[in-house]
Specification:
This protein is of the alpha/beta class. Helices cover about 40% and strands about 20% of the residues. The termini are far apart.
Length: about 400
């Protein structure tokens, strides 16, 4: 008969046997019952067609996890066995987790990445800028996929004026890469758009493999039309991301990128319009405050207070001008009278009016010049005496010099 053991003793024996006998295990199985805990640890079950085993991955190991686990995935985990004595269960404490076959795929992609990079297909110098305001955007993707719907919804909301062209292509399967590459070449040949969006929604590493195929990467690098790669979710990656002119973390982000500038300009215009409206409104309010104290009567009073002094100055200037003109006219009249008096006093007629006469000789039947000296005339000569009125003819009897 075996020794009698308590439950604790038996469980401890099992724990030592399992944990000591399996310090490291590499297990492949289907993920099920996946349930992240509030503490950050991951609890799940690995199973195959005949059995299942519990597993846990503590949060300090999650930094090495390059994908989001989902039920139904085929996983390969590395860890150790651990016994939970209180429940009498055992589980795998996972140190590393990868999708089954992912290691070989990643190695293949890394080798392809190095080879294409050596050819310069990923160089930043060859990348083209995405147009600031594209008129036409072409989408190379599955026309029924969620990626296309997301892009269309965002473009309709952010930039309804952009023309959208859908170039249908499968995004999964053996033919996907060659068809997508052909669509890119067709878009360039016919100059169908200003920018190309190539992508799909999220998926497994195997699902995204077409976007790392060499034929597609070369078509992207050779495109004259700027290409945005929008493959999967933010944590997903493909070689298309490296060859494209711009990488978007999601298809929705790609739609935001091609409409971002337009939205920024619209926001700037709206902001400027709001600023202009506020400025005009504030100035109008200030103007209302400034004119509020001025009624019509007050404005008239102020106008008259400004105008009245000027009118008074004008009237004073007018009066002074008239007075000066009158004084000048009187002065001129006085001078005129003096000139007339002097002229009249100098007139021969005025002398004749005072009783004087002009005596002129008659010689050869003609009247000569006025006689000024007695010596100018001889006795017997005839004279003409001209008083104020009429003429007198006289005969000279004698002449004599003036005596005192």
């Amino acid at each position: 008969m075996p020794d009698l053991l308590s439950v604790s003793e038996l469980t401890e024996l099992i724990r030592r046997s399992l944990e000591g006998g399996f310090p490291q295990v590499l297990v492949e199985g289907e993920l099920s019952n996946y349930r992240p805990s509030s503490t950050g640890h991951l609890y799940f079950t690995l199973k195959d067609s005949s059995a299942s085993i519990s597993a846990v991955m503590f949060k300090n190991r999650l930094r090495s996890l390059a994908f989001e686990p989902k039920d139904g995935m085929l996983l390969r985990v590395r860890g150790s066995l651990s016994v939970y004595a209180q429940r009498g269960t055992y589980s795998i404490v996972v140190e590393e987790m990868e999708r089954s076959g992912e290691g070989e795929i990643l190695a293949m992609l890394e080798e392809r990445k190095r080879r294409l990079a050596a050819e310069g297909l990923f160089d930043e110098e060859r990348k083209k800028p995405v147009p600031r305001f594209p008129e036409t955007v072409a989408i190379v993707s599955s026309p029924t996929g969620a990626a296309v719907r997301d892009i269309l919804n965002i473009l309709k909301r952010r930039a309804a004026g952009i023309r959208v062209l859908i170039l249908p292509a499968p995004v999964q399967g053996a033919e996907a890469a060659s068809v997508i590459a052909r669509r890119i070449r067709q878009a360039n040949h016919w100059q169908l758009c200003d920018v190309l969006i190539v992508g799909r929604g999220g998926g497994s590493l195997e699902d995204l493999l077409p976007f790392s195929e060499e034929v597609l990467v070369r078509a992207l690098a050779a495109s004259e039309i700027p290409v945005i790669s929008a493959v999967g979710h933010e944590i997903d990656w493909s070689l298309c991301d490296l060859a494209a002119d711009l990488r978007a973390p999601t298809p929705s982000a790609a739609a935001e990128l091609v409409s971002a500038h337009r939205e920024e300009v619209l926001e700037s215009v709206r902001a400027l319009g709001h600023t202009l409206y506020s400025t005009v409104k504030n100035r109008m309010e200030r103007a209302r405050l400034l004119i509020r104290p001025f009624s019509a009567a007050e404005l008239e009073h102020r106008f008259r207070s400004i105008l009245q002094p000027r009118l008074m100055r004008f009237d004073a200037a007018k009066d002074a001008l008239i007075e000066n003109m009158q004084e000048r006219a009187a002065e001129l009249r006085r001078r005129l009278d003096l000139a007339r008096t002097g002229l009249e006093a100098s007139s021969p007629l005025a002398i004749l009016e005072r009783g004087f006469s002009v005596v002129m000789p008659i010689r050869d039947g003609k009247t000569g010049a006025a006689i000024r000296r007695a010596a100018d005339i001889k006795p017997g000569e005839r004279l003409v005496v001209r008083p104020m009125e009429g003429l007198i003819t006289a005969l000279v009897e004698s002449t004599a010099k003036k005596t005192d």
